[in-house]
Amino acid sequence: NVDKAWDPIRIACHVYIALHAEKNEIVVEAETDDDCTTALGRIRVTLFHAEANERTCRARYIVEPPPASYMRKEVIGVEVESAEIAKDRLDRRVKLAGPWLTQKEKEDWEQKRKELMASNEKVFADHLGSAFINLCALNSSMRMRVQFGNIILKRYRTEMAKPGFAFDKFVNMMGQSRTGADFEKMVGGIELGFKLIHKIHQSPDMFCPLDNMTGKLSDIKPKQKLIYRKCGNVSFRLEADIDITVRGGEYQLGENSLYKEDSALKKRLDVEFLAFNSKFDWALEIMTQERLSSNSIAIQATAQDLLSSATVEQDVMDFPYPTLGPKRRLNGKDTANIHTIFQYKLMGTPYVVQILLARGICSDVVGYCGASMYSTNWDDHMGPNEGEICERWKLGSDLRVLFPLPPSTKQSSFATGGQVVDKHEGFRAFLAAVDKVQTFLSEAVSEK
C-alpha cells in the first residue's frame, strides 16, 4: 500500500522511488535536482498524512472510574431507548450492574480509583501530545472542541449483553481496537435545550456573559449560522453567519467560510470518556479542515436564496429563526441546517460553554440540542494563519500552550525562584472544568 502511494509522485516528478524496509529508508533517484527535491517534498507530505491517518483512524476510549458510592462489580449493555439515536437493534449503552461494594471493597476501590484517574490523565496527555505533532505537520487549520453526549457501542464482546461481565473486563475491552462505537452529540431535543438555557440563566454564580462578568445572562442574544452542505463528486460545506433580526423582511447571508469536504485531507481525532455516574459522556474532538481562500459564487447564491425564501418562525423563547418547511427540496443529498448558538463563560476559567439548537431549514423535524465547551485560546493557536504554523509545533511538547495555568495556582506547584514544576496543572484545571459542566448538565436534565 505504501509503495502504491508513490506512483503519482513517480509519474509527476519523473523519479525512481524504492522502499528499503529492512533499512527503514526510501531511495529517490532523478535526472535533475529539482525533480528529486520536488519528489522528496511530496513524499514527506504523504508520510505526514499516513502518520495522521494512523493516529486518527479510530477513537481512543477512556473509562472514568466511578466513585465508591456509585461503583458496582459488573457492567451490562442495555438497548438504546431513543429511536432517534439507535441505528441498529444491537446498539448498546452501558450501565453498572451486579453487587454493590462492601465497606472494605469501597476503601480498596477509592485507592485504586486514584491510581486509575492518574493513569487516565497520563494516557490522555501523552495521546494529545503525539496527536498534535502528527496533525500540525499537515499545516491545516484545526478546531478543538469538548462535546457532551453519549457513547453508543456498535462492536463489543457478546458476553457484555449478559449479567456477569466484570468491570475490569469491560475496561480492557474498551482499549481493544476491535471495539467500535459512535459518539452521539445530540443530548436531547429542542425542548431540552430550552431547559438547559433556563437553568444556566438561573446560575449566575457559575456562568456569566462572555464580555461582561456583571451582565444579565438572560440578556444574552444567540448567534445564528447557516450550515449548507453541497454534496457531489467533490463536496463543500458553507458556514455562514445570518442576522437574527430581519432586514427588510428577509434574512441576509453574513460573513461566511467555505470548506472542502475531502476525506483524504480531513482528519478527526477523538478521545472519548465514558462516565457511569453522569447522564452524559464527553469527548475531546480535534478536526483538520481545508478552508478555501475564495468562496463559490454559486454556493453562496444558493445559500442566500434559501434564506431569502424562508419565513420567520419564533420558538417558545421568542427567538426568531428562518424555515422553509418540508415542501422545499434541496438538490440530491444536499443539506441545510440553522444553528442557534447560545454562549456563556464558565466563571473563573478560560472556557466557553455552548448550547446549540439545530433545525433543518427544509424539514418538519423538530431538531436537536447539543452541548459543547471550548477555549478561544484553542482557536488562536489552531487557526489557518501561516505565521502561526511554527508556533503550533509547541502544542505537542507543552500542554501549557492550550491549557494555561489557572490564575490561582497553588504555591506548592512552584520551585524556588518561581519555576513551574508541574506543567500539567492547567491540564488538570481543564479536566476539573469539564467535570463541573458535565455534572451541571446531568443535574439539569434530571430535574423534573
3D structure, described in words:
The chain has 448 residues and is α+β, with helices and mostly antiparallel strands. The protein has two domains: 2-52, no CATH class; 58-446, no CATH class. 30% of the residues lie in helices and 31% in strands. The protein has an eight-stranded antiparallel β-barrel, surrounded by four helices. It has a two-stranded antiparallel ribbon with strand order 1-2. The termini are far apart.
Secondary-structure blueprint of this entry?
Elements: H1 2-5, H2 7-13, E1 15-20, E2 25-30, H3 33-56, E3 60-64, E4 72-79, E5 92-100, H4 103-136, E6 141-155, H5 167-174, E7 180-184, E8 186-188, H6 190-201, E9 207-208, E10 223-230, E11 236-242, E12 253-260, E13 268-275, E14 281-291, H7 297-309, E15 311-314, E16 320-323, E17 335-346, E18 351-360, E19 368-375, H8 376-382, H9 389-392, H10 425-446
Parallel strand pairs: 3-13
Antiparallel strand pairs: 1-2, 4-5, 6-7, 6-14, 6-19, 8-19, 9-17, 10-11, 10-17, 11-12, 12-14, 13-14, 15-16, 17-18, 18-19
Helix pairs in contact: 2-3, 3-4
